[in-house]
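Our preliminary data section would be incomplete without showing what the modeling component actually yields. Below, a chain of 246 amino acids is followed by its predicted structure, encoded as tokens that our downstream tools consume directly.
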Amino acid sequence: MTAPLGQHQVEIERNLRAWNEKPLLRNIYAGFYRRILALIDPAIPGRIVEIGSGIGNLKAHLPGAVTTDLFPNPWLDLACDGYELPFRSASLSHLVLFDVFHHLRAPNAFLREARRVLVPAGRLVLFEPYISWSSCPIYGLLHHEPVALREPIIRAESLSRPRDYYAAQGNATRLFFRQEFPGWPEGWRIFHAEAFSCFYYLLSGGYSKPAFYPTGWLGALRRFEVKLSRWPRVFGGRCLVGLRPA
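Predicted structure:
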């Protein structure tokens, strides 16, 4: 999927309205952030930076994080491009990307920059869609971004300007779980790769659709999906990946 880069800001403004109007969505994301925080190691020196922070929700769970995005907004700390990070080399402890990796047209170009700014023991934490037998049709039908399981993935280590809005929801599944490119990513070690069921998220309608169930059902659905998560290739809908420089 390609579109003018300004489409990103349009989505941020739409997402902020949905966030304020849907308590169910806020409850779901609180659980997602708890998973991310489990991969944060406070003993590693350096600042924690979120790339592509959108409406800036990580701050509620990690107040010390530096929030960034392509466009300046009042709730963010910094506007920057993930391919050209404005941080000193070996100065950051963690980089967090929530639903951002699948917007990277050239993931290798970002990973090269991430290696530059992270300290040697630093961590890169990715939270992404996971494409399974059951989640694929849901992502394909209910979300405007393509799943793109058969589209080529650019492996270049640079991305020239001008840049556009890109999305391929299946990229994390293809690269970190199906391992379509053996030995990828070079120069990194994957220390955590977890896919889990989350129909409670998929059926919440996300930011753009109405919910298919009432907020009071969320707790029971979460407990049920712990069991479904035993078979992520069938029932998986989200994934959490942690990487360290090798």
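The helical segments are 7-21, 23-37, 107-117, 135-142, 171-177, 199-202, 218-228, 232-235. The two ends are 32 Å apart (CA to CA). Preliminary results of this kind motivate Aim 1 of the renewal.
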